[in-house]
Amino acid sequence: MATPNGNGTNGHVGRVVQIIGPVVDVEFTESYLPPIYEALRITSDGFDVPEPINVIAEVQQHLGEGRVRAVSMLPTDGMVRGMKAIDTGGPITVPVGEGTLGRVMNVIGDPVDNLGDIPHQQRYPIHRHAPSFEEQSTELQMFETGIKVIDLIQPFVRGGKIGLFGGAGVGKTVIVMELSSTTSRKRVPAFRFSPALASARAKATTCCARWSNRRSSTLANPSITTWKRRALST
Ligand SMILES: Nc1ncnc2c1ncn2[C@@H]1O[C@H](COP(=O)(O)OP(=O)(O)O)[C@@H](O)[C@H]1O
Ligand SMILES: [Mg+2]
After folding, report:
1. For a Cys staple, 28 with which of 14, 88, 117, 199, CB 3.0–4.6 Å?
2. Which atom of ligand 1 is nearest to the CA of 168?
């Protein structure tokens, strides 16, 4: 099994020099600067603290003079200046493979569903290039959601993108929760929801499908396909 984040080190250890919420500045000596996206493990070793600190932060910016600005992946409560920031010698990685299907993990790849360890042979960095065209399937395959009205009337394409547009209370959240539940129960790889992106896109678009029949059932209402098509064609 590959080692989890931060168990390794390349021997470089910095010190925390500033903490502003989740943003942590770290100073390294001997003109060493960890690369962007490097994972740093900040620990409270040698400090008298009520709760030991052991958090992973990701380098985002080189500030110069041996300093980097990193973003902590866990709360920085109790962290103080001078604490050790160990360069783990690599980026943040998460488990990949069959064992991850149907599981929930946080951004540093630890399981958060109380179902124990995630069995895996390999971990991948969280920042990767998209697969090249040669590596992608050219087959048009249906993404089976298990939701009858979607699979029958408006099937999704595997690997495609779907947008949900609508006013408040029309059932967007219910559909997304249903999708997430049906696809994870069947352990289908590849269901990822990006709420931030979705809401940014929803704000940016001028064609916000308006659906006056607010409180009626989204899934039962056939007009869903009309507004979804309209939304998707923008
Ligand atoms: N398919 C459905 N069948 C019955 N009631 C639904 C359905 N979809 C949504 N609702 C009702 O509408 C409410 C609001 O839906 P929600 O998904 O939270 O809306 P949105 O996220 O679009 O604002 C839900 O709490 C539920 O009571
Ligand atoms: Mg909602």
Report:
1. 14
2. 23
